[in-house]
Amino acid sequence: MLSLAERAVQVLTTADGREKTALGRAHAAEWFAARAAGTPIPVGQALPPLRPARPEKPDLLDPRDVPRRRPGTPAGRLALLHAVAHIELNAVDLHWDIIARFADQPMPLGFYDDWVKAADEEAKHFNLVSDCLEALGSHYGALPAHAGMWRAAEDTAGDLLGRLAVVPMVLEARGLDVTPGMIGVFRASGDAGAVAALETIYAEEVGHVAYGSKWFNWLCGRAGSDPKEVFHDLVRHYFHGALKPPFNEEKRAEAGLPPDFYWPLADGIPPSQKII
Ligand SMILES: [Fe+2]
Ligand SMILES: [Fe+2]
């Protein structure tokens, strides 16, 4: 039987988005069926590629070269959905990568449960947004996309705490901040399909940030270190630039991310400390 780490590498080395997500979803279903039966699939070990396989299209451009379009136009909304599909495909790989990349470190089975579930949800998100693109007569790959998405993974390839700090607790938490605005854009344009897809993404991403926060705190607890201090050090080390308010304080709280984790890393002053 293939180990979980070997399955993760299979997903990472599959290029096509629909094939990658179908394979990942099948592995997730088998993982949870085996867990429920009390006969877990061994975690094992396997070497993940430094970068995941990607389809020939979209062309990956430096972020400065990706054309900006205003969301008030149909072309702008299509570009926004395309960018979200690209983020979701990257997220599928990020979650399988954390499983394979750090499989040599002993972690409770619950760690793998959480990331397999998150990877499965990202696959659903990619498919939902790809369906929206196809309903508009387009598809994932039709527009250029951001080339820098994998940088956080490469930068933290040797540091599990760094990976948790930067990926779920900074990047995915940022998703919680910006998704309500995107939902508003598609609600205003009357695209019910895109609204439904983004609402599913918004609800499920809270869980991914929560998994990050949970395992970050758990690892700090095991090492006897102060999670807040470690978080600040790691984000300053691996993340390029300040965090951008406004923050979705409500959803961040739901995900177990306290304000004193992110405000000290932000551009600007927290509202409670502003001098009026
Ligand atoms: Fe997602
Ligand atoms: Fe996510």
TrEMBL record:
Coiled-coil segments: none
Biased composition regions of type Basic and acidic residues, renumbered to the chain: 53-68
UniProt cross-references to Pfam families, sorted A to Z: DUF455
SUPFAM superfamilies cross-referenced by the UniProt entry: Ferritin-like
Residue ranges of the region described as Disordered: 43-72
Family annotation (InterPro entries): DUF455, Ferritin-like_SF, UCP012318
Name the record gives this protein: Ferritin-like domain-containing protein
UniProt lineage: Bacteria, Pseudomonadati, Pseudomonadota, Alphaproteobacteria, Rhodobacterales
